[in-house]
């Protein structure tokens, strides 16, 4: 009986540990926008999943097809660096031909204190002058660097119907209808998040609560295992 109890406790602890949800991923908001939409504000939401501060965030933008006229919004305590790339074939816009586009934006915190602290997230905003008119989605790549040297690459492809990606790429779905969401989302420095960003924060808090509950049940299961083992080793009274 004691052996069965101990085995059950171990299994319960392991299952609960495996069932603990992963925290938030790097995402882009809004998640949908109309093809060819202009002056669209995109927010890359970066969570901190470690005990160390996040001090650098790199966003790689596609260049085939490219996004024209990308501007990076300054973030207090961070320095933004914009990298451009020449196009083999210039794209035509209402303002003329564009032969060079932004291919990468890197935000670097001035110091660890200004970085993204544990159990928080930060929004990094860009203005897209014109989204691609072709295709069904825009796939970005993100690289997150922590103060302790850890690097997390959000570059795993997302395949519909396939296995869940561990570090999925941020994806903006392109729609052809007039109901596409292109409303800018702004995160004020030092303020509270609202709208879609607030919803994402609530989702993260819910996931965190579930994780804490799972940890508590795991600890209870392990305590049961220890008690069972101690009772098993206790000599029988005469």
Overview of this protein structure:
- This protein is an alpha+beta fold and about 240 residues long.
- The chain has a domain at about 25-185: Sandwich (Immunoglobulin-like), CATH 2.60.40.2230.
- It has helices at about 1-20, 195-235, and strands at about 25-30, 30-35, 40-45, 55-60, 70, 80-95, 95-110, 120-130, 135-140, 140-145, 150-155, 170-175.
- The strands form three sheets. The protein has a five-stranded antiparallel β-sheet with strand order 6-7-4-10-11, with no helix packed on it. Strands 1-3-8-5 form a four-stranded antiparallel β-sheet, covered by helices on one side.
- Helix 1 (about 1-20) runs antiparallel to helix 2 (about 195-235).
- It is elongated.
């Amino acid at each position: 009986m004691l052996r069965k109890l101990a085995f059950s406790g171990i299994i319960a602890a392991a299952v609960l540990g495996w069932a603990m949800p992963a925290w938030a991923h790097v995402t882009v908001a809004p998640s949908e926008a109309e093809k060819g939409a202009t002056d669209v504000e995109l927010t890359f939401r970066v969570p901190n999943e470690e005990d160390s501060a996040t001090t650098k965030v790199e966003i790689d933008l596609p260049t085939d097809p490219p996004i024209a006229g990308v501007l990076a919004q300054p973030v207090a305590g961070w320095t933004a660096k914009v990298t451009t790339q020449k196009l083999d074939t210039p794209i035509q816009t209402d303002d003329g031909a564009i032969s060079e586009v932004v291919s990468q934006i890197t935000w670097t915190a001035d110091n660890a204190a200004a970085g993204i602290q544990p159990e928080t997230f930060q929004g990094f905003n860009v203005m897209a002058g014109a989204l691609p008119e072709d295709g069904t989605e825009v796939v970005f790549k993100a690289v997150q660097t922590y103060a302790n040297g850890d690097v997390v690459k959000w570059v795993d492809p997302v395949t519909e119907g396939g296995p869940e990606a561990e570090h999925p790429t941020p994806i903006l779905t392109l729609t052809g209808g007039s109901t596409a969401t292109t409303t800018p989302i702004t995160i004020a420095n030092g303020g509270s998040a609202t709208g879609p960003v607030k919803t994402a924060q609530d989702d993260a808090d819910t996931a965190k609560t579930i994780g804490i509950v799972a940890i508590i049940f795991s600890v209870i299961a392990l305590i049961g295992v220890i008690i069972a083992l101690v009772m098993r080793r206790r000599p029988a009274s005469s």
